[in-house]
Amino acid sequence: MKTFFLCAALSLLPSFAQAESKPWFRSAGDYMAYRTERWGVPTDPSTKILTDGKRFDTSIGKRISLLTWGDDEFKKAWSFGIEGGMLASLYRYSNAGSLTFATRTFDGYFGAYVGFMKDGWIAMLRTAHLSAHLVDNAPELDATGKGAVSYSQFWNELVVGKTFPAPADTSNWEVHAQGSIGMNNTSTPKGRQPRASLGLSGAYALRGDGKLSVLASADALRAGVEGQANSYAVFLGLGSLNRPHSTIRPWRAGIAHFGGSDWRNQYYQRAQKWTAFEASTEF
Question: What CATH number does the domain containing 88 carry?
């Protein structure tokens, strides 16, 4: 009987090995969705936690390819997809001797896009909406619920990025540059056109499979809202080098620094400068 179970277990090993060796990205559309996410921008689709031990900002989100066509082995493809996410900001404090995590702000966002990639270039037309809210534990709220500002945007934008070397090439390093420009169709507070962003990220594999790599990124965002300054983010840490045929879930962990306007948009008129530990992943 023991021999039977041993043989049965051994017979399963090839199937497990095959499952583990499957590429994380099922298509060029999946890769395009991941590659255009800017993890350094908290309200871009991503799943992460940022903390300095007292403030905890957590987000969950993803850009999802629903339809991919013209897929030429990551050299050329079209994709249509949707995206969405939410960001909550919590504070740790002691309440009557009990450890408490009070949620203060909540931002929600969703959108849709059409994207095209060719030889490392990605172009994306994106439409999206974002709204920001104070919640029950925000100290600015009084008994009548006053204290929150009206913050809501609908926008269209063009996103353009370039990856070096091209995704179809085998490489143990990469650099990706990406920018966007758009218009806030409706904006409360009043819009101050244009809306724009700029980002640069790089990775170098410490292992040949890219599962452990050095990662760095820098991002700048102009929200296109009157009274809202630019916001900036930089990151340095470890993570995965995710080329199209990578078999590992994208992740990174390290130190992030933020400056400029507070990207918790209820506090958009405040200046922000803080350093946090970041852990991010795809799901």
Answer: 2.40.160.40
Q: Is residue 12 part of a domain?
A: no
**Hey, what amino acid is at 206?**
L
Domain count, the chain: 1
Assess if residue 68 is contained within a domain: yes
Res. 17: pLDDT tops 50? no
pTM: 0.88
**Is 281 in contact with 60 (CB distance < 8 Å)?**
no
Residue among 182, 180, 256 nearest 218 (CA): 256
Q: What amino acid occupies position 111? A: G
With tokens 């039977």, the residue in question is: 4
Write the DSSP assignment of 123-157 as a string of letters: EEEEEEEEEEEE-TT-TT--TTSBTB--EEEEEEE
Residues 6 or more apart whose CB falls under 8 angstroms from that of 159 comprise 36, 113, 122, 123, 124, 125, 126, 178, 179, 180
Greatest Cα pair distance, the chain, in angstroms, is: 74
pLDDT at residue number 212: 97
